[in-house]
Design goal:
mainly alpha, about 0% strand
């Protein structure tokens, strides 16, 4: 019997009944080892990153923090210009 990563993730409570098509396609390519890794992390992640989860669950990430301080949201993607990673020579 072939391994079904989506079924495994559903049984583990990680994946809902109707995921977005892009997510569904990506999950269909997971190996058994990759799916088992996601399943094993399910209960460990909340303990490792409580502050991150707290902000994501309370709606605190509706806007980038820089935008909340008056920066234009469109300017936030210009970090490559400052770091040099957006070098036009390539």
């Amino acid at each position: 019997m072939a391994f079904d990563p989506q079924r495994s993730l559903r049984e583990a409570g990680i994946l809902g009944d109707s995921p977005a098509p892009g997510l569904e396609a990506a999950l269909a390519t997971l190996t058994e080892e990759e799916a088992n890794l996601l399943i094993s992390l399910k209960n460990r992640v909340p303990g490792l990153v409580p502050e991150v989860l707290a902000h994501s669950l309370d709606g605190g990430w509706n806007r980038p923090e820089a935008a909340q301080h008056g920066f234009e949201a469109a300017m936030l993607c210009a970090c490559g210009l400052w770091s040099g990673s957006g070098n036009a020579e390539n």
